[in-house]
Amino acid sequence: MEKIILYNFCEIDWHDAIIEKIMIDRNNPGINDSIVIFIICADNTKRNLRFNNVYWADLNMNFGVVATESIVKAISKGRDCIYVKELYAKWKGMINDVDLNYYEIETNSTGSIIKIIAKEVLIITI
Fold first, then answer.
1. Would you tell me which of 8, 14, 25, 28 could form a disulfide with 34, CB atoms 3.0–4.6 Å apart?
2. What distances in angstroms separate CA 9 from CA 18, 27, 28, 113, 126, one per listed residue?
3. What is the pTM of this model?
C-alpha cells in the first residue's frame, strides 16, 4: 500500500539507499512530465521518489558495473540554484511564475549523477 509522506528531501538518510528502477512518465506531456525513482533505503524501507512537473533532467549515468546502484548523497536547492537560474534564463521569462527546485542524486557504484529540476518531489513509502 502506498503512503504519501511529506518529507524534507534533505532530511532523508540517502546514503547507501539502493536505486532499483528509474521511470520517465510522459503520459501527460507538458502538463505533468514526471520521473519516478524506486529505491530501497538502508533501513529496508521501500520508497518512490516522484518528481512532478519536471522541466529539465540530466541523467548522466554510467553502466556496465556488476553491482547494485547505491546513493552516496542527495541534495536539493531552490530557485537560487545556478541550474534553476540558467533554466529560467533559457525560457526568457515564460516560466518565471513557476516555482522550481533542483534535485541531485550522486551514486556510489558507478559515479553517476542524476540532476532534476521540477516543481515538487513526493516521497512515497510503499
1. 25
2. 16, 25, 25, 17, 17
3. 0.92
